């Protein structure tokens, strides 16, 4: 059958993996019961373990689900330590359920798959050598990709049942009170890890900085923690950004940022009290700078900024241009340092951020969001998971979640190298087109015809040409030509959920 975005999904896949096909972005009134973790009474004055090896040996068993967070991104030094010990113990058939997977983890995950230690993965995304290996059939079972809000939903409802969570933190006391704000490895918000701490049956904190009891403020508290393990180094916070938060000098990216800024400032949502999420990356950071100047010029202040936070956003907070920053993750050390200093920068967990099954997620209050894309099709559907070669090389992240804003803008170049960004048919669909309002490229913008209000308001902005999405697609094709169709094997290697848990796409194995 075909789901709402026209993806053909076999009845066998739906039945085997227990899915309903994606039926649309409108999520109705749902009642779902939250699960609760097991309670393990930990008596005694200290939870500090003698060694990480003992914790692994005594708590991880075949067939379990284990989790990690990705707040340290490429600077993470916890994941590989834990996974090597698990492999050495000969443990098999684990489900790996991190909030996301970064390149620094790839070699170890591939090693664990080849050893039979990991047979299932659920994550926000994957890239590099791991994405390539999974796309070519290395993992025996399909990866399940979920948005950040979708992961929170799955944890809260028991779709993901975490047996042991291994959480790196830059500080903790002997009972497990911890936060992400102080210490050599400080990375700011613990937003994704908070879900694991709250719902995992066992929680193991790894830190290089055991501090005096009681450690406050505590994002993770002692009622949730089973073990505290001292390690040599949790991570390198200087590698959190890894180039993602660079200030661009690329003329194309600056032109796109100018287009985006013009769309925002000429929209009906640019007014006192508006809310926004801009994200990281060269063009997104440039948008933040342009938006700052527009706010100063027009004397406009925002009520809150949301999402993964960068220093340019916290600078707006310091300048009084933004009243609150709602922070689920920090993308650079500057934003992490700001959380420690400014009480108006509020740490939030991923449920508060984006879970569609709770009593009110922050994304539902967004006015404006700027998102990126690997591909966009002529129905405004967006792909952020697979490249033009069909290989997994991205992450859903908060893409689907934040696309619920009143004005959702996709910023992307018309072509990347010799590859078109706007295409007739994509390699996979991550976010449905009826969530997307405007696509902004260096040549101009396309407005979703479903938003006739925006067509009227944005069609005459000085210096911003307006095209149909079909016209932009043709311009891209004129530059790079038509791609050769990718050959797939009829075997699912990944299942992409929509944020409500329905199946939006099936990613098949790429033919050698």
TrEMBL record:
Question: Which terms are listed as keywords in the entry?
Answer: Cytoplasm, Lyase, Transferase
What Gene3D superfamilies does this protein's entry cite? Glutaconate Coenzyme A-transferase
**What is the protein's given name?**
Citrate lyase alpha chain
Q: Return the InterPro entries for the record.
A: Citrate_lyase_asu, NagB/RpiA_transferase-like
GO BP field: acetyl-CoA metabolic process
The UniProt entry, under SUPFAM superfamilies, shows: NagB/RpiA/CoA transferase-like
Return one GO MF term: citrate (pro-3S)-lyase activity
Write down the EC number.
2.8.3.10, 4.1.3.6
What chemistry does it catalyse, as a reaction equation?
citrate = oxaloacetate + acetate; citrate + acetyl-CoA = (3S)-citryl-CoA + acetate
GO CC term, one of those recorded: ATP-independent citrate lyase complex
UniProt entry tagged with the keyword Cytoplasm: yes
Q: Subcellular localization, per the record?
A: Cytoplasm
Its source organism is Lacticaseibacillus chiayiensis
């Amino acid at each position: 059958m075909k789901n709402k975005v026209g993806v053909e999904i076999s009845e066998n896949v739906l039945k085997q993996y227990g899915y309903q096909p994606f039926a649309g972005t409108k999520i109705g009134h749902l009642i779902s019961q939250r699960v609760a973790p097991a309670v393990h009474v930990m008596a005694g004055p200290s939870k500090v373990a003698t060694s990480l090896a003992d914790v692994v040996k005594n708590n991880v068993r075949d067939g379990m689900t284990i989790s990690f967070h990705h707040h340290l991104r490429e600077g993470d030094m916890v994941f590989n330590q834990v996974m090597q010990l698990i492999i050495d113990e000969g443990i098999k058939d684990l489900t790996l359920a991190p909030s996301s997977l970064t390149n620094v983890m790839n070699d170890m995950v591939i090693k664990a798959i080849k050893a039979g230690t990991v047979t299932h993965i659920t994550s926000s995304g994957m890239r590099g050598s791991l994405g390539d290996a999974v796309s070519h059939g290395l993992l025996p079972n399909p990866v399940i990709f979920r948005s950040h809000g979708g992961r929170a939903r799955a944890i809260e409802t028991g779709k993901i049942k975490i047996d042991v969570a291994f959480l790196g933190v830059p500080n903790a006391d002997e009972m497990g009170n911890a936060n992400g704000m102080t210490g050599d490895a400080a990375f700011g918000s613990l937003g994704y890890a908070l879900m694991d701490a709250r719902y995992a049956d066992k929680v193991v904190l790894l830190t290089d900085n055991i501090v005096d009891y009681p450690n406050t403020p505590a994002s993770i508290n002692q009622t949730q923690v089973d073990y505290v393990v001292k390690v040599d180094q949790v991570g390198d916070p200087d590698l959190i950004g890894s180039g993602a938060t660079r200030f661009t000098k690329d003329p194309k990216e600056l032109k796109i940022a100018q287009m985006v800024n013009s769309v925002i400032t000429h929209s009906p949502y640019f007014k006192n009290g508006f809310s926004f999420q801009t994200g990281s990356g060269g063009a997104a950071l440039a948008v933040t700078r342009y938006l700052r100047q527009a706010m100063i010029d027009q004397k406009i202040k925002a009520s809150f900024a949301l999402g993964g936070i960068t220093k340019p956003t916290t600078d707006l907070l310091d300048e009084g241009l933004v009243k609150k920053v709602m922070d689920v993750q920090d993308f650079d050390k500057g934003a992490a340092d700001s959380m420690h200093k400014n009480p108006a920068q509020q740490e939030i967990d991923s449920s508060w951020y984006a879970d569609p099954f709770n009593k009110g997620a922050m994304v539902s209050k967004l006015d404006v969001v700027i998102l990126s894309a690997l591909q966009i099709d002529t129905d405004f559907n967006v792909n952020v998971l697979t490249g033009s070669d069909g290989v997994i090389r991205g992450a859903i992240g908060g893409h689907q979640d934040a696309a619920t804003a009143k004005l959702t803008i996709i910023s992307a170049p018309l072509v990347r190298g010799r590859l078109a960004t706007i295409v007739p048919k994509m390699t996979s669909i991550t976010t449905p087109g009826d969530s997307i309002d405007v696509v902004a490229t260096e040549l101009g913008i396309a407005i979703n015809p479903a938003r006739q209000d925006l067509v009227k308001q944005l069609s005459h902005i000085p210096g911003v040409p307006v095209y149909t999405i079909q016209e932009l697609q043709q311009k891209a094709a004129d530059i790079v030509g038509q791609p050769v169709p990718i050959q797939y094997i009829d075997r699912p290697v990944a299942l992409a959920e929509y944020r409500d848990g329905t199946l939006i796409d099936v990613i098949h194995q790429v033919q050698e």
